[in-house]
Amino acid sequence: MNTKEIVLQLLEDVPSLRDDDQRLSTYIWFRELERMGIDPFNIPATDFLKLYAKDKITLAPTIKRLRAKVQEEIPATRGKKYYIRKGVAEEVWRKKLGYE
Questions:
Q1: Which of 34, 38, 63, 97 is the most buried (most CB within 10 A)?
Q2: DSSP H or E run through 58
Q3: Domains held by the chain: number
Q4: Which residue range(s) make up the domain with 35?
């Protein structure tokens, strides 16, 4: 599975991750560490940072961009924050244009 497929699977399986890039990243890193044979519960922070710096695990900005792309392509994976933001912004926009 590539990272985009993993992000899609997590967004579908764990709806609370749809609005939280930090938690989504940690879920992905946890799985990646397990696949490397590293116990995620016992890895020193310095070792984790070395893996991150050497691109051995997926970078957080990459995960964030993939999450945004998946949510753009598949509306069912969007979180509550999206609908709150869209609803309020659209309402204000409509009023300013005189549609209401």
A1: 63
A2: none
A3: 1
A4: 3-96
**And the tokens for 94?**
């409509």
Q: How confident is the prediction along the chain (100 residues), in pLDDT tens digits per residue?
A: 799 999 999 999 999 999 999 999 999 999 999 999 999 999 999 999 999 999 999 999 999 999 999 999 998 898 887 766 666 666 676 777 787 6
Cα–Cα distance, 3 to 46 (Å, whole number): 24
- The whole-model pTM stands at 0.80
Work out the widest C-alpha separation in the chain, in whole angstroms.
Answer: 60
Q: CA 64, 60, 76: angle at the middle one, nearest 5?
A: 25
What type of residue is 3? T
CA distance 31 to 35: 6
